[in-house]
């Protein structure tokens, strides 16, 4: 890919850098995993691995599926900001993406958002969907689960299925092989479709 | 290693689980990298990849080297808590470690802490030490650096060298292959040497 070389000289959009990183690390299953930090209810940071589910169509928003019964939903509903740290283990590239998170769960009234949640549900594998039938995460184990869950593939999102829409405002990109670092800052207008990014080359 | 099997049945200390994970992933350079979340000065979460530098002798404290000129030092000095997310890409194990962070930099007066900082400096490779000579991280690039730094191997810690001592209070361990999860909570006495851990098996 030409991305790395271009990055060493100038101004490539972070989306292009990310696409190249995903491409060059595609043979690694974990290349679509990243760590999402939020602020917990007691004010301390929280951090966990989640899976990249692609971008929302026509935007830079990152989609993440999660279980509405996990603590992060309560955390995000209280404080809407997060930072993704996405490290690519083969190309030694890191994307730190800071932004606002929108929670779309079974209680969301906006019909367009519910449609997006439904699409994300059906875009998941049946095996992924099955996990939303499991006992409440983080509660004490009451009995050993048989793990023998069944789910009709045509059924819509379960109540425990939640879609997070992560809206990037700043991206801090570093390439440790090429020793370059770029800061991308969104200068978003209220009209989301008009999202420009300022780029600055900084010391790694 | 027997650790995974033991974890499926009961109560193994998180240190033993971590030692087994490090062992089974040792062929991967990135197995000693994890993501450290903190709360930034504006209250938003911050998250970045750092390198595990071992445990402080005789304790569960995790050592991390960093540059005192990075923002995380200002962040941690304002709010001392962090959460490590350490995902092992081959064994599918995740350790979320929440705790308090102690900053030891050139201004620290405690002699024992300065000794620890000095030991961490000399435990680093000469190549690692060279990075503390580089231009201030995250400032605009003024000129292309020649990367031709020299450093006397016998010289002690540079001012920009900072040691973080991460003091774990809770560890949330999940093994995605075996589908088990344990919460470890410290019941530390004021005497740090007497650190007991409570263990609870919870739903993944």
Give the quaternary arrangement of the chains.
Answer: homodimer
The string of secondary-structure elements of chain A, in order, is HHEEEHEEHHEEE
Radius of gyration of chain A: 18 Å
Poorly predicted runs of chain A: 1-10
* First-residue to last-residue Cα separation of chain A: 22 Å
> In one word, what is the shape of chain A?
globular
Helix content of chain A: 10-25%
Alpha-beta content class of chain A: alpha+beta
Textual characterization of the structure:
The structure is a homodimer of 204-residue chains. By secondary structure, chain A is an alpha+beta fold. Chain A has one domain: Pnp Oxidase, Chain A. Chain A has 5 helices and 8 strands. Chain A has helices spanning 3-9, 14-24, 71-78, 111-123, 126-130; strands at residues 33-39, 45-51, 62-67, 81-88, 93-104, 161-175, 180-188, 195-202. In chain A, strands 1, 2, 3, 4, 5, 6, 7 and 8 form an 8-stranded antiparallel beta sheet that branches. Mean pLDDT of chain A is 92; it is low at 1-10. Chains A and B meet through strand 1, strand 2, strand 4, strand 5 and strand 8 of A and strand 1, strand 2, strand 4, strand 5 and strand 8 of B.
Brief account:
Chain A is an alpha+beta fold. In chain A, about 20% of the residues lie in helices and about 35% in strands. In chain A, strands 1, 2, 3, 4, 5, 6, 7 and 8 form an 8-stranded antiparallel β-sheet that branches.
SSE layout and pairing:
Two copies of one chain form a homodimer.
Chain A lengths: L2 H7 L4 H11 L8 E7 L5 E7 L10 E6 L3 H8 L2 E8 L4 E12 L6 H13 L2 H5 L30 E15 L4 E9 L6 E8 L2
Antiparallel strand pairs in A: 1-2, 1-4, 3-6, 4-5, 5-6, 6-7, 7-8
């Amino acid at each position: 890919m030409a991305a790395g070389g271009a990055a060493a000289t100038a101004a490539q959009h972070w989306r292009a850098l990310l696409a190249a990183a995903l491409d060059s690390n595609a043979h690694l299953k974990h290349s679509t995993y990243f760590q999402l930090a939020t602020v917990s209810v007691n004010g301390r940071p929280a951090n966990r691995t989640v899976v990249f589910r692609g971008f929302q169509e026509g935007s830079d928003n990152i989609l993440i599926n999660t279980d509405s019964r996990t603590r992060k939903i309560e955390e995000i509903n209280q404080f809407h900001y997060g930072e993704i740290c996405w490290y690519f283990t083969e190309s030694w590239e890191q994307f730190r993406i800071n932004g606002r998170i929108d929670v779309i769960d079974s209680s969301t009234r906006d019909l367009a958002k519910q449609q997006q949640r439904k699409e994300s549900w059906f875009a998941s594998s049946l095996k992924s969907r099955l996990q939303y039938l499991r006992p409440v995460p983080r509660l004490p184990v009451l009995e050993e689960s048989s793990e023998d869950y069944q789910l009709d593939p045509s059924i819509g999102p379960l109540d425990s299925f939640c879609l997070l829409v992560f809206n990037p405002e700043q991206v801090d990109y570093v390439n440790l092989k090429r020793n370059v670092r770029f800061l991308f800052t969104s200068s978003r207008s209220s009209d989301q479709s008009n999202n420009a990014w300022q780029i600055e080359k900084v010391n790694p």
